[in-house]
Structures are given as C-alpha cells and as structure tokens.
Amino acid sequence: MMRSPAACLVLAAGLCVAVCAALPASAQTKAIGRYKDWRVYTEGTGKNQICFAATSAEDASPKNVDHGDVDFFVATWKSGSASNQPSLRVGYDLRTDLAPRASVGRDRFRMYASGSEAFFPDGEESSLIKAVKKGRELRIEAVSKKSERTAYSFSLQGSTDAIEKAHALCR
User: Fold this and answer.
1) Sheet holding 149-155, edge to edge
2) The pTM is what?
3) Which residue, 23, 74, 88, 156, is most buried by CB atoms nearer than 10 A?
4) What does the alpha-carbon distance between residue 143 and residue 165 come to, in Å, rounded to a whole number?
5) What are the CA-CA distances from residue 59 to residues 14, 21, 75, 80 (Å)?
6) What is the pLDDT of residue 28?
7) Position 79 confidence tier, pLDDT thresholds 50, 70, 90
8) Is the pLDDT of residue 81 over 50?
9) CA atoms 22, 49, 11, 108: torsion sign
10) How far is the C-alpha of 137 from the C-alpha of 24, rounded, in Å?
11) How buried is 170 (Cβ within 10 angstroms: 0-12 exposed, 13-18 middle, 19+ buried)?
12) Per-residue confidence (pLDDT) for residue 153, from 0 to 100
C-alpha cells in the first residue's frame, strides 16, 4: 500500500526541518490516474493541497530483509512552498551519517536522510527530475539504522507524464 509523501517545511538550503509530518494515506488522498508504472494523487484541499506522482520499488535487495513499503515521490504543493520535490520513503529508519545515493544511468545524486525518508538538496532536485524524465531506471542505495545496506530499483516508464500531471494539478 503506497503512502503519501511527507509534508515538510522546506528551507532555502533544501533541508526539511523537524516539523516534517508524514501524511497518512486517508480519505483525503484521491487517486487521479496511472501513467504506466507511475500514479498521480492529490491530498488535502485549497492552499493545503499536495499533488504527487509516485512509484513503488520494482526490486529491493537484500531479499532476506523486510523493507516495508518503498516508494519514490515527486510532490508539488499548491501553496507554492515546493515544486517537483523528489523523495524516497522506506519502511524503516535510515542512517543519517551514511547518505543515500541515487543514480539514473550515469548520473549520480546525493541525498540526505531523515527518519524513514530521504530527500535531495535543492541544488540537485531539478537535475534529478530531468534525469528521471529521460531515464529508464532510478536506483537508490541506502543504509538502515541497523547498518543493513539496501538497494532499490524504480521503473521510470510514465514518469514524465505523471510528474507533469501532478505539477499541473497544483499550479
């Protein structure tokens, strides 16, 4: 079951502050459409609405570990506080001292972890979104608080249409 992205107060440096609050999937979450391997949702109303494109991991390793739900999001806030903000959510807490890494083809991106989520610094977000729209697969490697090394693969088929739809819904 896919969960909605976290709502964070985004600072100029691209970091989410401690007021991050996970938005549980609820009756307010509305499925808008499916674009190949991606889905589009809205949550909330008015200026509090968040529109997001999401995909679940197609592959997770190691196989003998309970990864929980593993989803990749690209969210836009109707309020304008963030636009096309990518993030990862896993079913366990991540180590903050060993930053997750993302790759699309030969492009590499740094991330930072907060609890069970990982985000991209502001300077990396637009480059990552461009790579996601052009690429075939997103791969993210992370380390759990229990020091388990994990890796996830996400299909990028349908990502362009889904990201553009979610962005357009929250303009």
Assistant:
1) 59-61, 149-155, 137-143, 101-104, 107-110
2) 0.86
3) 74
4) 32
5) 28, 27, 22, 33
6) 85
7) very high
8) yes
9) positive
10) 27
11) buried
12) 98
Fold of 6-169: Immunoglobulin-like (2.60.40)
C-alpha 4/C-alpha 49 separation (Å) is 12
In the chain, the amino acid numbered 44 is: G
> What are the extents of the domains in the chain?
6-169
**Residue-wise pLDDT tens digits, 92-119:** 999 999 999 999 999 999 999 999 999 9
Q: Which amino acid is at 71?
A: D
**Residue 129 · residue 140 · CB < 8 Å:** no
Q: Answer whether 166's CB lies under 8 Å from 75's CB.
A: yes
**pLDDT grade for 20, boundaries at 50, 70 and 90:** very low
Beta bridge partners of 155: 137
Q: Please enumerate in sequence order all residues whose Cβ is within 8 A of that of 82, keeping only pairs 6 or more positions apart, or say none.
A: 8, 10, 75, 76
Residue given tokens 């979450």 in the structure block = 29
Instruction: Tell me, letter by letter, the H, E, C secondary structure of 73-112.
Output: EEEEECCCCCCCEEEEECCCCECCCCCCEEEECCEEEECE
Contact indicator for 24, 43 with CB cutoff of 8 Å: no
Q: Residue 38 corresponds to which tokens in the numbers above?
A: 């991606």
